[in-house]
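Notes on consecutive records. When two proteins share a document, each keeps its own sequence and its own token line. Never mix them. Below: protein one.
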Amino acid sequence: MFRSGANTEHINSGSGTVLIPTRFVWPYGGSRVFLSSSFTRWSDYILMSPVEGCSTVFQVIYSLTPGYHQYKFFVDGEWRHDENQPFVKGSFGLVNTIFLTREPDVVPAIYSSEMPARSNMDVDNNPFINLEAVPKISMDDIEISRRHISVFLSTHTAYELLPDSGKLIALDVNLPVKQAFHILYEQGIPVAPLWDFCKGQFVGVLSALDFILILRELGNHGSNLTEEELETHTISAWKEGKSRLNIQVDGCGKLYSTDMRQLVHAAPNDSLKDIALKILNCKVATVPIIHSSSQDGSFPQLLDLASLSGILKCICRYFRHSSSSLPIIQQPICSLPLGTWVPKLGESIGQPFAMLRPSASLSAALSLLVQAEVSSIPIVDDNDSLLDIYCRSSDITTLAKDTAYALIQLDEMTVHQALQLGQHQHANSYGFYSGQRCQMCLRTDSLQTVMERLANPGVRRLVIVEAGSKRVEGIVSLSDVFKFLLG
């Protein structure tokens, strides 16, 4: 989010009054945007200009005297205020507020305990924050925050994750694979627990990773599995035969983490910390919460699917009004050991950063999803500016629609063409899809902002982009945040 803030330049007017050039920003779109304020006596409208390279963001710089000021925006004939900035109810309705000190090198406070939940913005465009003015975080502050979070997670259980109402889908292991993936697509779910009637228990999960392996198997000229056989090939048969596939991620065989071995699950009384660690250690996206009324585990009842996003939502809700107990919460993510970053020129390459051009083959995208063990891959142009993402959970299962996978040659179809199969709405000028598909943030966004965005269902990674150009600078994922928070 662009934020109004004072830079370090102070101007001394002829009368000796110190004036502080202050940037005001409206980042929520419009055709014509004006600024009105107490410092113009609410009578003059100051025209704001679109930011170059980002037509939905308007800004203006106005020199103010130190002190307390109120302001609001006039957007396309309607009075508006920025809900993500401090605001009060005044004589002119709800107005934003700002306090400027006389001290140089100070960025005004920009958060308030009275601030409501943020709106659904794709990216916080906030390039003007003065990182040098942000206090350096100490290891003591990090440990204090981790200890508070650890205590919370250890003293709250999976019951916290259970919704008041909802829909759960489990699949019979004797269901044909083809039909199973149609169900995942039609229901819009990335994973489903598997039920074995003969054993009377849940035995595994079916996920988009299985579909990737099947697509690769179908594309393998030496495959014994044909598209026609998917009509009768059961989930059980696929799971049992998957370990015989000649496909590996590495020497540890991580690719086979979803086969018919013992199901990774949780009980309702398990602590949120134990569940989070189980998800991280087993490298799974979700863990079924299963309750059994008998000692031997018979007659199990599926209550819900636990995920890191659900646990993170509990953390955000609990600490929302006591953020002072988490000293790290207002730190920009670039100041924390968090996420995977694109190496700068001259830096040694650490963890590989996965990106693809829209002309890359679908085969390359599927291989990268598996090998990099990630949930999505940024799709970028020649300047590494973000165009779209290719997502394991949604874009893969989309191929199950009308058996589209039967018509696909993985090496010949491009990522761009594969995304078009999804027939998403709101295509942008590049032919790619904007909106909620591309979840983004800036390096200057606070850890709290990142956590709240990752707590939304279905969001597992945020692409860190440069404001304006949307050049990809890194990735921060749910697992990154939990590894950092849990130490």
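Protein two starts on the next line and is unrelated to protein one.
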Amino acid sequence: MIPVGMDYARETSGVIGTVLIPTRFVWPYGGRSVFLSGSFTGWSDHWPMTPVEGCPTVFQTICNLPPGYHQYKFIVDGEWKHDEHQPFVRGNYGTVNTILLARESEYVPEILSARMSAGSNMDVDNEAFKRLVRVSDGTLHEALARISEADLQVSRHRVCAFLSTHMAYELLPESGKVIALDVDLPVKQAFHILHEQGIPMAPLWDFFKGKFVGVLSALDFILIIRELGNHGSNLTEEELEAHTISAWKEAKSYLNRQNGGHGGTLTRRLVHAAPDENLKDVALKILQNEVATVPVIHTSSEEGSFPQLLHLASLSGILKCICRYFRHSSGLLPILQLPICEIPLGTWVPRIGEPNQRPLAMLRPSASLNSALSLLVQAQFSSIPIVDDNDSLLDVYSRSDITALAKDKVYTHINLEEMTIHQALQLGQEPYSTYGFSSQRCHMCLRSDTVHKVMERLAKPGVRRLIVVEAGSKRVEGIVTLSDIFMFLLG
């Protein structure tokens, strides 16, 4: 059970009455029909639960409950059951699960208050599932506190063992396409292709060398746009029409040397993988080189043959393999059932008195596009939450959004300081689109969501990060990325 927000029930007199907390109940063990019943239904009403989309064995329902102590059970295919992995107690209705929803400390029932530590109380936004308690035979036990070092190492060992015994060729889909660009293609045309195909990057092929030599990414486009916006630049719009990718790469290398060899992301060697490389090595290549994808290239030993581009490996595809393998044996990974707020995972908005190694950057819609590009390049962020005055999530601006400026050659007549992020985001949206948590753009989760749930969401194509928001207000609390997950799993 996870409280997912807060609601207020108003009586007919107009006076605010009981505070109701929307609470999610989950039965993850399958069945044909599942119902929920408890002290809040008088044990007489049975509330239907529905399968989660994509997970037919997981049933859920959300109920508005007042703060306090509740008991409940599930009716699975006509049989009364309780969830042994949730807090439970033996009482008048047999063995029942329990839930404590506390808005204030006084909601702690007398039967538990004498034994329950203050840290066990559940807050409204359910920072809540930080601790679960189990009452059995009158003895209070901590069912889940911070993960033990042994469980952590066991989970990491099993993930590493799986990745080490599975190869990159297993990532190849049954059908699909991979786009590569010739280095002699004009930069302008190349970015039109990226925009039209909806991809953030593409490998570069050098015909004369007969090999893949690099990658053209959205970061290159950002640097080019900033160079065009620099009044001291020698690069004009006319030159951009004929400026080839190879010429840009040479110019970028020159800029890097002029800056004393600093700049990290300005020049990169091609990082690629062979089909027979194991998935752990592929994941480490992506993490260590701070790239989004790694081309999987097959090189034949036959004389005169060209290397073949088979696939673009990503952390998302590797994570999908992990989730598929452990889906029906999640018990092998004890860390999967932990809430993400309980482990060192992601970047979080620091609370008062809490240090944070890397600040969580957020911008208002009225901020200039140049300020966003500066964060994406200099601070090396891959995306920035766009929030309102209350820090509630409105949208996300990421590196891949920059390719929208290729539409109708918008980049040739904009002022980076005058164009706002809101205006820039509208370029990539349909005319009728407004801020509104598009399922294709704003992927969110709650701090109480489990590692398993977060991994399943991040394994979906096109999802590279989840914005952690507060239930109800959508106030941004943090970000969890694919890289965060793998750095945690691989230790």
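For the record: Residues 339 and 450 are 4 Å apart (CA to CA).
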